[in-house]
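Bit of a strange request maybe. I'm writing a small parser for C-alpha cell strings and I need a real example to test against, not something I typed by hand. Could someone generate the C-alpha cells for this chain?
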Amino acid sequence: MPKVPTYDNRTVMPEQLPNNGFSVQSSPDAFGAGFGRVGEQYVALFAEAKQRANVALAQDAALQLRQKANELMTDPQNGLLSQQGKNAIGKASEYEQSFRDYAGEISSTLPDDIVRQSFMQQAQEMGVQFASQANRHEMGQIKAYEQDQFQSTLTLNAESAASMYGDNQAYISAHKQVFQQIEEFGLSHGWGEEQILAKKQEFKVATARKAIENQLGADYMGFLERNGEPSSLGTVSRASTNNVPNDGVRGVRNNNPGNIRISSNKWVGQTGDDGAFAKFATPEHGIRALGKNLLSYARQGFVTPEQIINRWAPPEDNNDTQAYIEYVSDYLGVAPNQPLDLTNLDTLTHLSTAIMYKENGRNRVNYTDEQIATGIQSALGFVELQATSEAPKLLTGSAAFDALDEADQAKYLRQAEQLRKQKQGELQQQFGTRVADSYAAWERGLEAPNAPTHDELISAFGYDKGSAMSADMQEAKRYAGFMSAAKEMSPQAQQALLSQIKPQTGEANYESKIQRWEKFGKFVEGNIKEQDKQFAANRLQLSIQNNFPLDPNDKNNQQAADDYFEQHIQQSFNLRDDNSLNAVAELTARTGIIPSQVKSVLNMGATSKDPEVVLPIAKMYGQIFDNNPASATDIPSSTMAYYSKVYSLSRAGMPDDKAVETAFKTTFEQDERTKQMIASQIRDKGYIKDRDKAAQSNINDFYPWYKPFSSSSVSKPGTQNGAYLRDYQTLYDANFAETGGDVELAKKMTNAQIKRTWAVSNINGSEEVMRYAPEAVYGINESGAGNWIAGQWEEEKKQLMSKSFGGTSSGTEIVIVSDAVTPRDYSYGIMIKQTGSDDIPIYRPYTGDNGLPIRFKPEQSSSPMYKEVMEKRQQSVKEAQDKREREEALDKSRSEFDERRQSVREQYKEAHNERVNKFNNYFSWDKN
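Reply from user aminoacidic:
Good idea to test on real output. This should exercise your parser:
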C-alpha cells in the first residue's frame, strides 16, 4: 500500500493507507458504476491525506522555528541569555527581530497558503512567548546592571572616603554626598525609608572599618592619640586631693576610686568630670580605668611598687609618695623594689584595691567582689562593659571611629595596641643590635657614635629595663674611656688607674661593677704585655742600630729577638750560607740575645755525629761565642763543649768528619782511662795554679787595657773574692772534664759562663767583685759600653738621698747589694752606708714610707741612656719627616708654578689669536 507522511509528536512518520473495505468487482455490468464509486472514494481519501500532510508540514516548520528560538535564547556564546549586564541592554528587540526574520524564511519555503497560514499562527504564539522571555531577561539585566553600578559607586566612594581618615571634615562631606546618592537611588527604585536608612548605615559602618584599617596601617599611633583612652597615651596621674575639697568619698561618688584626673582623651564609660577628677557611669568603669592605667605603667616599664607609686602619685604634685609606697607594699606583702606581674589577674586586683583603699579610705570602698572583678577583667580585656544609656559608647570626635559599635571600637584599639607592641619589639631588636655594637666598640676602648640614648632605651624597653640598660651602658662607656686612656699610659699609670677605680663593697650593682672592673684588669694586663712587646721590639731595633745590649732576663726582649729572626732572617736562613750565619752572629753580638729558633737548632744537633749537620751549627755557634761569649752560655755546658771543640778542631785544619768524631768522643764518649787522667790532672798543683790564674785573668778582662794593674785581686781576703774563686773553680773543673781535658776550651767556656753571674762592678762608685752584679745579670759587656744601669741607679739614688737627707750627706752613702732575693727577680737591696771616724762602714736597709725595705730593679726602658737614644731616634724621625714635608711643599710649589706658567701661556696665545683675527678682519671686504 502507498504511504503518506503524518505528524506525530513533532515527527513525520510514514503509515499505510487504510482500505476501508474497498474491493474491486470484476462484473462487467457493474464496472462503470464501480469505477465511479472508486473515483469518489479516492478523491475523498486524497483530500484527507493532503490535509494531514499540510498539518505535518506546518508542525515541522514550527519545530524548526522553536529550535531556532531556543538557539537565539540559550546559545552559550551568542544567545540572549549569555548577554549579561550592560551588554543585554537593547538586545531583546534585536533578538525578537531575528526570531521574526527566521519565521519569515521558513514560511516562504512552505508549499501553499493553507500551510503558511497554519505555521504563521503557531509562529505568532511562539513569538509572544519569545518576546516575553527576552524582555524579562533584558529588564532583569538592566536592574542588575543598575544595582552593580550603584554598588560599585558605593564601593568606590567608600574607598575614597576611607582614605580621608586624616581629614575629618572631608570624610564627613564624602559621606553626605554618598547618602544623597543612596536616597536618590532608593527613591527611584521604590525603597522605603527604613531600607534607605539601613543602606546608609551599612555604608557608614563598612567605610568606617575600612578607614580605621587604613589608618592603622599608615599611622597607628595617630589613631591611638585621637581615639585611644588615656592609658593608651602614656597614662595619667591620680589627682592630688591635698588642696582640693574632699569629703573622703569623692572618688566613690564619681565612680572614680583611683581619683584619676581629667585629660584630653576620654575613658570608656566616662560621663564627664567635676573640674579636677573624671566621672564614670558605673564603679566598674572607674575600676577598669584604674586597672588600664596601671597596665600602661607596666607596659612602660614601671613594675615595682616604688616605680608605680612614684609615677602614680609623684612628690612634685604635693603627695606623700613615700608613705603611699609603704602602704601599697605592706598591703601587697612585697618589698618596694619587687617587680610585679600586672598581667596577672590577682596581682592587678590586689594592687588596684590597695590604691582604692589608700585614695578613699578602706571603710568607704564598699564595692562588691563582683564589681571589682568585672572592672579588672575588663581592664585586662577578658570582658567588655556594654554601653547603656548611662554609659554610652566612647565618642572621640573622629567620624570614622564614632561610627563603630563598642565591639569594633575595642577590636581596633586592641589592634593598635598590638601594632605598638610589635613596633616596640622591632625597636627592641633594632636597638638590641645597636646596643651590641656599642658594647663591642666600648670593650675595645673605641667610640660608639650610634649608641642608643637614655630616652630611646626607655622608649624601646620600658622604664625599668631601659633605665638599667642605660646605666650599664654608661658604665661600659666610662670603662671604654679608661681603656682608651690606658693605651697611652705607662704600665705604672695603668696599674694606678686600675687600683683607683676599683668598686667598693656595698656600692649599687656591685656584682656587675666588679665584673667589669676585673675585665678591665685583664685588659690592662694584656695591654701592658702588648706595650712591653712593642717596647721590646723598639729596644731591639735600637740595640741593633746602636750596639746597645739588652736585658737578657726580660722575656719581652727574647720575644722581640724571636720576632725579628722570623721576619728578617728565617725565610732565607741556611746553615751553609755565610750571610745567614753572619746575620745571626751580628744580631746576637749587638743585642746579647740568641733567638729561640737558633737555640732550637743548637740543641737539635747537639747529639748528632753527621758532619753535614754538626759542622754548620758549630760554625754558627763559634761565631756567636767569638762575638758575645756571655750570650752563648744559654745552652748546656756539654753542648757548648761539643760545638766549641768541633769549631776549634775544624779551624785548626782537621778534616770535618774527623773533627766531629773526635769532639763527640771527647765530650760524650769518654773512656775510663780518659776520665781517670782528667781526675788526676784536676788534683795536680800546676793545674790548680793555672786555674786560679785563669780566674784572675778573667777579672782583669773587666778593666780597660790601659789600667790593668788597677784590677782587684781575687786572692785578696774577702767574702766576695772567695765566693767568686770557688764558683770559677767549680765551673772550670766541670768544663775541663766536659772538653776531655782541653785547658783553653775549658777556660773560654768558664769565662763566658762566670760572666753571667760575676763581674767587677762600679755601680757603687768603686770597683768591687760582686756576685749577681748588675753588669753581669743584665748583659753589660766588659768595655762598659751601653751600661744603662749606672745612669738609672744614679737618678734613683739622687731621689732617695733628697728624700731622706735633703741632698748629699758627708759620711753617708746609698748603695745597692745583691742578696738572697737577687737570683729570683734580679732586684737589689738598697742599703744606707755610713762610715764613722774609725773608717768602719755600717749598713742598714733603706725603708720606705710603709716601714718596709725597698729594692732597686733595673728597668731598661726607663733608664736615662735608653731615653736619650729614643729621643735621638725620634729626633731623627722628625728630621726625616720635616725633610719629606719640605720636599713635598717644594714639589707642590713647582707644580703650582708650572700650572700658572701654562695658564699665562694659554692666555697669551688667546690674546695673540684675537689680535691676528682683528688684523685680518680690518683688511677684509665683502666681495659681493
